[in-house]
Design brief:
heterodimer; A: about 80 residues; mainly alpha; 3 helices; about 65% helix; flat; B: about 600 residues; two-stranded antiparallel sheet; 20 helices; about 5% strand; elongated
Chain lengths: ~80, ~600
């Protein structure tokens, strides 16, 4: 059972199915976020439906590109034998 | 009687017992002793024992309150799990040092005074260093020495701070440091705690040393050092606002460096720093909810981070490789490891029903409740980064991605069992958060499972996944290492050696040459001149005096006739002179 579950995530045969499932889940999550009651919010943005989804997406993209930029342009990434 | 049985003592006795046992006996003892500690924890109550006076200072060897108990609980659980994971190894040294390491961590959380804390703190550094040395290769030994050097320096700072604090306040009992806020003692102790909590720029020791430790040793290392530091920060620096900025910075710093990292365990190390950042920031906020959040997140963190290190350790043990660029496609061969690792990954990422969801969100809510919007937002960015690396990048390139062609088998049963236990805790805490909340130092009025919190968390995480899938090709690991602040002492050491081998050696040579050449010649001349002066002047004076004395002696001898009548004549003449002379003087006087 476990092997089949893991295989679903690794095998290229299920690639299309995985995409569909992911998009369906994303849609359902945003839908749920629109419908969910918000009796009490700390900040204004917490009351915007889909806020955290957009925030997560932008954060992730920003982390990838900003980090790679810092790593390459500030001389942080070096050859593996740098200290040898 | 039993209230005297300090868990640290059980571990230390266990450490003494282990070398006397062999093979199976040692393996059984290595799990039984931590189980005994766990049993002891069930009977532990708040209170203090072992007050003694030492050179006029009050020491409290054992002091338990709700805060120390919750840390001791998770330490004892992790001690059992870690030793099950290490069941298969045949290395008495590693077992003994792990026991001493865990025992001294108990010593820190139950220390009632600063000196007991200091002693336990130092033992912890040395015992843990062995787990790095035990890898027994050149890189590990070098990293171990660097680790030890940094921690010994931290220990010296702590010692200095403690003595200053004691002299200023007259008390050596641990507790919130209100006295001398911002003073030298306050800052020295804070810096040494921040060093052990791996707060940048004092964090490089962690990502330098942990990846070099043994597979089983890294599991212990990931659990105890940084979390005892979090404990002492909660105990002594609640509400120290400077920690908020440091905490948020380290949460993001770990995320940025994790993008660049190629070594599996170094990547996890950067995420220890990132996660401890949440706890450090929470300590800085200092509200009851924030301190509860820091404590519960430390509890959850020890278990899921242990699980992640165990999962990656299993891959390293079975493949002999540790770089993401050399791994991939292992999911066929190690499905159990994949699933167990993913439980830890979902827990650290704070998915609903996993432990991170009920602990991490408490810190972010505490920040929001304390009107710190920027802190809450930045920590949320770091949450996205956490899932991106430990939940997506690492498992993708390790288990899926490009097939590296290796087909290892699953790790030994004991390792799977230990990972299963940790996974059980990760899910158990997520499903029944009240079990953890009941242990916390302050009453908990927080309900993580609200509809909005669930949809928001899922939105954040699943859209992170979406962005990951879209940007995958930009995230490919590269065959590089990242420079961190350890550059200063690794390159600094080279600079030191250069200084020693060039300017210092040159100076020494110059001095020697001068001494052998011009200096020696001058000395010779000087000695010849002084010899001449000695012969011609000092000796001449001495000889002259002697000769004069001798001549006077000869002259005097001519007056000594030896005839009594001559001597009598001299006396009479003398007498007459003595009598006549005053008489003439008296007559001559007017």
């Amino acid at each position: 059972m476990i092997a089949r579950l893991v295989n679903f995530f690794g095998d290229d045969r299920y690639k299309r199915l995985r995409w569909r499932l992911l998009l369906l889940m994303l849609f359902l999550i945003v839908l749920a976020d629109v419908l969910v009651p918000r009796p009490h919010v700390e900040h204004v943005w917490d009351s915007i439906p889909g806020w955290s989804a957009a925030f997560g997406f932008i954060s992730c993209v920003a982390i990838i590109f900003v980090s790679k930029f810092i790593g390459h342009s500030c001389g942080i990434m070096r050859d593996e034998d740098y200290y040898d | 009687m039993t209230e005297w049985l300090h868990p640290a003592l059980i571990m230390v006795f266990g450490a003494a017992l282990l070398p006397m046992l062999h093979d199976t006996g040692q393996k059984v003892a290595s799990v039984l002793v931590p189980l005994l500690v766990l049993l002891r924890m069930t009977q532990m109550d708040v209170g203090s024992q072992g007050q003694v006076q030492f050179i006029g200072i009050d020491l409290v060897l054992f002091q338990a309150d709700q805060l120390s108990l919750v840390f001791a609980w998770v330490f004892s659980i992790m001690a059992v799990i870690g030793n099950i994971y290490a069941w298969h190894i045949n290395d008495t040294g590693q077992r003994v040092s792990a026991f001493l390491y865990i025992g001294s961590a108990f010593g820190v959380v139950f220390a009632g005074d600063w000196f007991t804390l200091l002693v336990a703190w130092e033992i912890m550094a040395f015992a843990s260093a062995y787990l790095i040395f035990a890898s027994a290769n050149r890189k590990a030994v070098a990293a171990g020495f660097r680790y030890l050097m940094v921690h010994v320096a931290g220990g010296v700072l702590l010692f200095g701070g403690i003595v200053l604090h004691g002299v200023q306040t007259g008390s050596y009992l641990v507790g919130p440091l209100d006295h001398g806020q911002g003073g030298l003692a306050y800052n020295l102790i804070l810096i040494s705690f921040m060093l052990n909590a791996a707060v940048p720029p004092l964090s490089a020791w962690l990502t330098d040393a942990y990846p070099e430790a043994t597979v089983t040793g890294a599991v212990f290392l990931s659990a105890f050092t940084t979390k005892t530091a979090v404990y002492v920060l909660i105990r002594n620096y609640p509400g120290a606002e400077v920690l908020i900025g440091f905490g948020v910075a380290m949460a993001l710093y770990g995320v940025v460096f994790a993008v660049l990292e190629n070594d599996c365990r170094r990547l996890l190390g950067y995420h220890i720093i990132s996660q401890v950042g949440y706890m450090v920031a929470a300590v800085g906020m200092g509200t009851e909810m924030a301190l509860n959040g820091a404590t519960s997140h430390a509890f959850a963190h020890i278990l899921y981070k242990g699980l992640l290190f165990m999962g990656v350790g299993a891959v390293i043990l079975m493949t002999g490789r540790r770089k993401l660029t050399e791994l991939g496609g292992l999911y066929h061969a190690m499905p159990m490891t994949v699933v167990l690792y993913m439980v830890g990954a979902l827990a650290i990422s704070a998915f609903p029903l996993f432990s991170g969801f009920v602990s991490k969100s408490m810190i972010i809510s505490a920040a929001a409740g304390d009107h710190r919007a920027a802190v809450a937002l930045l920590l949320t960015v770091a949450s996205s980064g956490t899932f991106l690396h430990t939940g997506l990048k690492l498992p993708y390139y390790m288990f899926f991605g490009k097939d590296c062609g290796l087909r290892p088998s699953e790790p030994p049963v004991n390792m799977l069992l230990a990972m299963g236990l940790a996974a059980l805790f990760c899910i158990g805490i997520g499903v029944f958060p009240q079990l953890l909340y009941d242990l916390l130092p302050y009453p908990v009025n927080y309900h993580p499972y609200s509809g909005a919190h669930i949809t928001q968390s899922l939105g954040l995480l699943m859209f992170t996944l979406f962005a990951f899938v879209l940007c995958l090709r930009y995230l490919d690991p590269e065959k590089t290492i990242s420079l961190d602040t350890d550059w200063l002492y690794r390159r600094g050491a080279k600079l030191f050696m250069w200084l020693a081998l060039h300017p210092v050696l040159l100076w020494e040579k110059m001095v020697v040459t001068l001494g052998d050449g011009a200096g020696l010649r001058m000395l010779h001349r000087l000695s010849r001149a002084s010899q001449k002066a000695d012969t011609h002047f000092v000796d001449a004076v001495v000889n002259g005096v002697a000769r004069m004395t001798w001549r006077c002696g000869l002259l005097l001898r001519q007056f000594q006739t030896g005839v009594v009548s001559h001597y009598a004549l001299v006396m009479i003449v003398g007498l007459i002179v003595m009598l006549v002379f005053p008489l003439i003087a008296a007559l001559a006087a007017p």
